[in-house]
Amino acid sequence: MASSPVALSSLLLIHLLFLSSAAFAFSTITKLSSSRCDVPTPTAMVRGEIDNEDPLLTTIPIDRYQNVELPPVFAYPHFYEPHPIAKYACEQVREQIKTLATDEWTQHNFFSQSDDDNGAGKMFGVLVVRADNGSLGYLKAYSGSITGVTHSEQYGFCPTLYNRFETCERTGFSYLAEEAELNKMNLRIEELENDPKRIELKTALDAVKERAMISLAAAKTQQKEQKKKRQVLREQMREELSPEDFVVFEADLAQESAYYQRQVKQVKAASTKELKHAQASLDEFEIELQELKRRRGEKSNSLQSQTLQQYQFLNINGQRKSLLPIFADTPLQRPPPGAGDCAAPKLLQQAFVSGFKPIAMAEFWYGDSPLLEVRKHNFYYPACRGRCEPILRHMLQGMNVEDNPLDLVGEEVESNKTSLEIVFEDEFIMAVNKPNEMLSTPGRHQEYSVYTIIKESYPSATGPLLVHRLDMSTSGVLLIAKDKDSHQILQEQFINRTVKKRYTALLEGLFDNREEKGFIDLPLALDYLNRPMQKVDYNEGKAAQTFYEVVDTDLEKNRTKVHFYPRTGRTHQLRVHAAHEQGLNIPIVGDDIYGQRDERLHLHADFIEFLHPVTNKTMTFSVKAPF
C-alpha cells in the first residue's frame, strides 16, 4: 500500500514514541507478499505501517469492550481461562464456521469420524489484538488444514507460515519442484523394481541360491556319513590288522577323507561361480537401483530440512527463528509432525507481521473428537505442549506473559499451609483426607505435599510413606504406612487388586441412551504431544478398567453424580474414562484438561477398604464428598 512522505513520517514518529515509552515493542510490514516464507526483516518491520483495512482483522465493536477490563498481561498459553472478549470473538467465529461448513467447506465434514480419517474435528483459535490506532479487533486461525481449502485468507483466516504450493521469493525454494524431483526418482525406482527382466534375473538368482544350498548340504551330509563309516571301520580294523598294516590302512582313510573335503570345496566353488554370474546380471539393475535409493534418501532429508527452514517464527521484537533451532534443545531435538501448523503460532505470526499488539487468545474445538483423544465440541483448550510450547517460548519473548498458573497454585497452597485432616491413625498406618489442589508427593516446581507434611510430622517414619497417590486436583482418602514393612504389605494388596476403592464424581451432563451401571475398558497411554493429557491407545496403552454406577441426577443443573470403582490406577484414568466418547462421554465437572473449568475438579476418593498390615483386620475408611 503506497503512503505519502508526510503520512510515513507521522507513522514513524508515532512508532518511535511507542518504543521510547516502552509501551510495547512490535514490528510490521506493509503487505504480506504472495509467499509465506518471506518473513520481513526487523529493519523492514520498524517502518510501523498498519493497514487499518486488514482483511484478516475483524474489528470488535467498541461497546463490547469499553466497560470491560482487559487483561494486563498475556495469559500463559498452556493453561488459562479465556478472557470474555476472546470468548466473544470465538462466538463470532463459530457462527462463521457454521455458515462455511454448509455453503463452501462442504468437502470437510467436521462431524464425521471413522478409522480412516481419525475424526474430522478441528481446533480453531482467535487472538484479540490492539491496532496502532488503539482499536480492538481479532484474528482467527485453524490448526492444520481444511479439506478443499488451499488459501485460508480467502475466508479471513490467518495463513499458514509456509505454503508448500508457493515458491519462496526470498530463497527461491519451491517445495513442489523439489517434490517433483523426488517423484521422478520414485517413479524410476518403481520402474526398475518392476522391470520384467529384473524380476526374471532375481528369480533366477534365487533359484541358483537354492540349488547351491541343496548341493552344498548334500555334499556335507555325504562327508559326515562317510566320516562316521570310517570311524566304525577304523575301530574294527584296529583289532584285525597288524600295527604295520593298520598304519597303511589309516593312510588310505586319510586320503578318502581328503577326497570328500575336496568334493565339498568343489561344490562350493561351482556354486560361487554360478552365483557370481547370476548376481552380475542382476547388478546391472541393482547398482542403479541402490544409487537411486541413496540419492532419494539424501534428497528427502534435504527437502525436509529445507521445508522446516521455511517456517520462520517472529516475536514482538522482530526476531525470527526456524523450527530446527527452536526444537534443538527438546528431547527429540527435532520438531514433531505438524509443528508450526497449529492455530496459536499462526495467530501470533500474523499479529507481529501486521504490527498488532496481542491482548488475549482463545482456542476451541469444533466438531467430532479424534478417535483416541478427548476433544469436546465447542470446548476451550490451551495451546498444545509438544508442538507449540518450544515455538511459543520464542514467539512470546519480549511480551509481558503471566507465569504458569500451576506453579502459582503450588505457591498458594504452600503459603496457606494447613494441617491434614486425619481420618485414622495407629502405630503402623494412617489415613488422611487430602484436599484438592495439593500434591500427593513433591513435584517439579512444588515441594509442599502430603508426603512432606507427613515426613515433617513423623521424622522417625521409614519407607516411602504413601501407599498410593491421588491427582493434585482430586481430594479424598489417602493411605499412609509409617514403616517399610507395613508399606510393602499394603503395596502387595494394591498390586493384587484386593483393595476396594470408590470415587464420587459429578459429571457435566446427563446420561442419554447409556446404561446407568457398567464397565469401562479403555487402555491409556501418555499423549506425548499434549502432556500431561492421556489418550486411549489400543496398541501401546496400559490396561485401564473402571466400574461405574449412577447415584443421582440433577435435571435442573444438567449434572449426574456417579460412583467409580477403578480396577486399575492409571494416570487420569477416571477423568479420561468419564470424558472419552467410548467411555461415558461426559467430562467431570471442573476438569480443566478434558472438560471445562469450574471452582474445582469434582472428583473425590470417598471410600477405601483393605486388610491391616499387622492385625490383618478389615479396615474401612470413608470421607463424604464435599459436593
UniProtKB/TrEMBL annotation:
It comes from Skeletonema marinoi. SUPFAM superfamilies: Pseudouridine synthase. Transmembrane segments: none annotated. Residues 430-580 form the Pseudouridine synthase RsuA/RluA-like domain. Residues 175-236, 268-302 form a coiled coil. InterPro entries: PsdUridine_synth_cat_dom_sf (IPR020103), PsdUridine_synth_RluA-like_CS (IPR006224), PsdUridine_synth_RsuA/RluA (IPR006145), RluA_PseudoU_synthase (IPR050188). This is RNA pseudouridine synthase. Residues 1-25 form the signal peptide. GO terms for biological process: enzyme-directed rRNA pseudouridine synthesis. It comes from the Eukaryota. GO terms for molecular function: pseudouridine synthase activity; RNA binding.
